[in-house]
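During the reporting period the student researcher (J.K.) took over the structure-prediction task from the postdoctoral fellow and processed the backlog of single-chain submissions. One of the processed entries is reproduced below for the supervisory committee.
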Amino acid sequence: MQFYIRKRRQAPAVIIVALIDILIVLLIFLMVTTTFKQQPALKLALPESSQAKKTGASDIVPLIISIDPKGNLRFGADSKPVTIERFKEELLAAIAKKPDLQIAISADTAAPVGQVIKVMDVSKEAGLKTGVNLFTKEPGKP
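J.K. obtained the following structure tokens:
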């Protein structure tokens, strides 16, 4: 009787470097094809102006105050709701940190004009050295 000696097979080797290369290529592809458009937290219908400038026209990033159609205030980049008194406190704290602070009002076309005036008054009372900007859109643009 003849016995055949079976040779041990080697365990299959996984080439980890090739897998890492493929994952890096996939990651780069996903990063390039993804859009990073920042959506505003509050949908507003901005008023039209023939003198409207593109956003980002200045080097200094302003602090944004949004006013919705009901007259509610939202403060800062995270759009947290505030009252006019709380807005004054927040603005004083922001001016203490950054004296050359600029603010921009983003008010809906249906927002009460009184709220816009109150925000402008509070910013002057807080000692804002620069003017107050208003967000508008070009005529005919969405």
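The committee noted the following: The mean pLDDT is 80.
J.K. will present the remaining backlog at the next meeting.
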